[in-house]
Amino acid sequence: MKSTMQPYQLTVTSLMHHGARLFGGTSEVITWRGDKARHATYAEVAERAARLANALCLMGVKPGDRVATLAWNNQEHLEAYLAIPCMGAVLHTLNLRLTPQQLVHIVNDAKDKVIIVDGSLVPLLAAIREHVPTVEHVIVFGEGDTGKLGDHVTYDDVIAAQPSTYDWPEIEEDSAAAMCYTTGTTGDPKGVVYSHRAIWLHCFGVWGAFRLDERERLLVIVPMFHVNAWGIPYVAWMLGCTLLLPDRFLQPEPLCAFITAERPTFTGGVPTIFTGMLQYAQANNADLSSIKRAICGGSAVPRALIEAFRDKLDIELIQAWGMTETSPIGCIATPPPGVPVEEEMDWRSKTGRAVPGVDLRIVGDDGGELPWDGRSVGELEARGPWITGSYYGVEAPERFHDGWLRTGDVGVIDSRGYLQITDRSKDVIKSGGEWISSVELENHLAAHPAVAEAAVVGVADAKWEERPLAAVVLRPGAEAGPEDLRNFLDGKVARWWLPERWTFVTELPKTSVGKQDKKVIRQLYTDGKLDVQEVGKAAR
Ligand code: AMP
Hints:
Domain AMP-dependent synthetase/ligase: 32-392
Number of strands: 27
Largest sheet: 14 strands, mixed
Bound molecules: adenosine monophosphate
Organism: Candidatus Aeolococcus gillhamiae
CATH class of the domain at 8-32 and 39-210: Alpha Beta
Shape: globular
Pfam families: AMP-binding (PF00501), AMP-binding_C (PF13193)
CATH topology of the domain at 8-32 and 39-210: Rossmann fold
Distance between the termini: 58 Å
Family: Belongs to the ATP-dependent AMP-binding enzyme family.
Keywords: Ligase, Membrane, Transmembrane, Transmembrane helix
Structural class: alpha/beta
Number of helices: 16
């Protein structure tokens, strides 16, 4: 028997209309300029999104075409978030922390037709422009040196010339709305494509999990180029929260100035940002008192950080877990009701419990599901309506298991359903919320004439959560020091990837099948059993 319900399609367009209609004149989008803020009402943003859709249509953008953004968190980026999916095209957010080579790969892989670029990021685009032949139009907003960019148009000019309404099409909920690339263990980044339906349902999941409503002033620190800023812009828009966008001013000083000036009540970001914010606020007596709650994730959140936020700033810092492949919200770590106050922190410092709509399980080496006993360690697998079932244009059967996504995270689940991630099977390092590929660093190091073998692992770092440690075996009789190898890598990978920690060993630990045993290297480092030399500083 079929239901009597309407076949209503779950689309970003419905979220956009809801936000614009209900909150058009009352809620705002506020972008920080470093010393002052730029305010726009929801109605103004919606109107500019309609103008942008008209402009893109005139440029030949058709349903399904990819339109990329290379931008910080700001009003124009939000306009693109609304216009592109709602006109039936696909929003492709480019991660500005990627190397030029990776950017070239993903723009070509996605076959982006148009790129909307932030003026401050024009040099990055200019450097790759001639290598991305599918891009027919470049639209620049904000100030920037466009001298070397070649053909382009100016955002404000093109939208000013367009009608203020757009005939938004009917869209099927399974159509692609947005895409984002994830840094894989090996090889090039892989594309994840979000449907309208997935974004819609994810918004409802986030709404409940983050306990949001119209009264919140929501500061979006997590980048809009990284998993749609955890879906926060869409859920905020849907609920009418005033959105506070920090643009490129992510250093503690200007960020705290923005907070003091515009008084957000809620925010979300990676631990590195919050660690910097805490230190700055304490040293400078910055007023962060408007913030009541903050979601923190993207890397394991140290218990000490959650405690310091509670004790020093009176902010509830809530850990969440997710991935590009999971839209991203999968888990949230709020304590169960009824636990004594002194035990609350034990629950908050776990990775969290699945949000409704997400199924999680832990699987052992033999592929069998492990019990939720808090002891059995296995790989975390996930499934649900906002979890990817494949990657864009590539077969990756090893990433899926009977319809579940293999996350590459390793951990335990206890009898109450709380997940604790204890390790990572994927060979990547997460530094300040963005990925460093250990495999790529190893490949470059192996090309140095003095290097016989190299392994790069992620180790704990007080500021960046994780940084790479390079363990190197030199060829017999060859000589090379950390500085030589760092200089050798410089220019081949992004500067912020260069390891500061180096250790030279006579052999690398291996597993039974002869693979480098990175777990053992990490353990040796943690136990202080490696002779580590430090050179240089992590740069961003
Ligand atoms: P990304 O696809 O860049 O968002 O990265 C997703 C990965 O970040 C996950 O698979 C985890 O390895 C890591 N991650 C995210 N949140 C957490 C967390 N709360 N604790 C530990 N690791 C996390």
